[in-house]
Amino acid sequence: MIVIGYLVWALALLVIGGAVAATVLASRLGRPRLALLALIPVGLGLIAAAFGIRLLPEAPAFAVVLAFGIAALGILAGSPLTTVVLDLASRGAPVRRGAHGGILIRRERTGEEQEVLRGGTTIGLLERTAIVGAIAVGHPEVIAALIAIKGLGRFNELDSSAARERFIIGTLASMVWAGACAVLIVVTTA
């Protein structure tokens, strides 16, 4: 049984490493759907945990290595996965991207175009890092403060319905992904 545990650990590490590589490629190549491969290790891990299947070796070093791999996946895959969700939500309507990473919207009152929600990728990375860290160390209440800070920080950019929709959908997709990965870390290392 010990040999099987080590083989499962090695396989899990390879799958997680492959998913991280696919995520990095998805971001670099501008093909966010490639990051859907990240769903495989996280989904399988959560299903195994739900059924109480523990095949990994008992040594803490193995759990730590897997935890760091899952954390990397939770932080890095969130951006392209959120892009996929936002693309699905826009139902094929093209969203014009701004020069600074935001989206271009037309102000209803003035009719002029303005770039809003700039820096979303960087904010998302920081947000997912905070979520994974908070849940991993047992302080999920940090997420409430994170949501409040993010909402207050973006408040003046949310006067357009398009901006509000992208903000809500993008934030939820990003946070759900980070939360799922963090839960997997907790149940894997428990």
Key traits:
67% helix, 4% strand, 7 helices, 2 strands, single chain, mainly alpha, 190 residues
Describe the structure in your own words.
- By secondary structure, the chain is mainly alpha-helical.
- It has one domain (2-189).
- The protein contains seven helices and two strands.
- A hairpin with a 6-residue loop joins strand 1 and strand 2 (113-116).
- It starts with a helix and ends with a helix.
Question: What would you say about this model in short?
Answer:
Helix content is 67%, strand content 4%. The chain has helices at 2-29, 39-50, 60-76, 78-89, 120-136, 142-154, 161-189, and strands spanning 103-106, 113-116.
List the helices and strands and how they pair.
Elements: H1 2-29, H2 39-50, H3 60-76, H4 78-89, E1 103-106, E2 113-116, H5 120-136, H6 142-154, H7 161-189
Antiparallel strand pairs: 1-2
Rg estimate, integer Å: 19 Å
Q: What is the number of strand segments?
A: 2
Compute the number of structural domains.
1
Secondary structure class reads mainly alpha
Low-confidence parts, pLDDT < 50 over ≥5 residues? none
Strand percent estimate: under 5%
Distance between the termini: 20 Å
Number of helices: 7
